[in-house]
Structures are given as C-alpha cells and as structure tokens.
Amino acid sequence: MTMPKKGSRLITVDGTAFRWRVSHRPASRGDSPSPLTFVVERDENPGRVLRVSLPCARPDNWEGARTIAIRPPLVAGCVRRALGQGWLPARPGPAFTLPVTEDELTELLDGPPAYLIPFLWGMIPEGGTIRDLPRARRIWSRENAGPDRTP
Fold this sequence. Notes:
By secondary structure, the protein is α+β, with helices and mostly antiparallel strands. It is built from two helices and seven strands; from the N terminus they run E-E-E-E-H-E-H-E-E. It has helices at about 70-85, 100-110; strands at about 10-15, 15-20, 35-40, 50-55, 95-100, 115-120, 120-125. It has a five-stranded mixed beta sheet, covered by helices on one side. Strands 6-7 form a two-stranded antiparallel sheet. The termini are far apart.
C-alpha cells in the first residue's frame, strides 16, 4: 500500500528519505472526535506504511476538542520510535500502526505540546482568548451593522 505523492512532504530521518502526510478522511468513531493521524513511507522503494495515531482530535472536529499542528520534529520522532519497535519500511506488508499516548507525545516533542482549540474562524491556542485568532478579531451582530460598519 503506497500513499499518493500529492500533498505529501519530504523528511530525512537518519539519512533515509521519507514522505509523510496528514490523513485526509476522519475515521468514524461514533460520537467521539476522530483522532489526528498521519502516514509515513520511504520515498524510494516504499514498502510498509507507518500509520501514527495521536492523542488529540482532528482540526475539523465539531466538538471543539483540542488538536495540534503536526511538524517535522514530531514526524521524525515517530519514525525513530517505530523503527525501534520493529517497523521495516523497505519490506512490503500491512500498515504498521504506532499509537502515541499523551506522555509519549511530550517526550517526542521534548516538552509539552502546544494544543490548539478549533473555533469558528480559526484556532485559538489552549488557554488563549479571541484576541489570539489570526483573523475575525471582532464579532459584529447584524443589528449593530450600519452604513459605516460592515458585519
């Protein structure tokens, strides 16, 4: 099973080139938000895919559950951990699943993760306020909109 190259990013871990991408479709999990997952495979001669499941929700969740941005240091740490647990990326086979717990996430990032909370117009850092949104800092109601102000 190989992943499409479109939308994937390259990363080199200990001299080996890999491709990774965030999973696009949420897995159905009933009433709870779907976990944030990403997949990794070797760039040249891909074989077995690594599927990493993180202990936070996808950014598109409707419940406002916390999420994180997946960055290259996290991907590299997960690749190293999976290789240590027996993932053989050059050999064909079913996907190797690596579930990451909250404690392991802190260890992989060398510190506590910077969680984000989905909001109607963007992401608010955990513990932040509406002033931390990148846009739409002021909310106007239709009743307050006048000729000189637009909602």
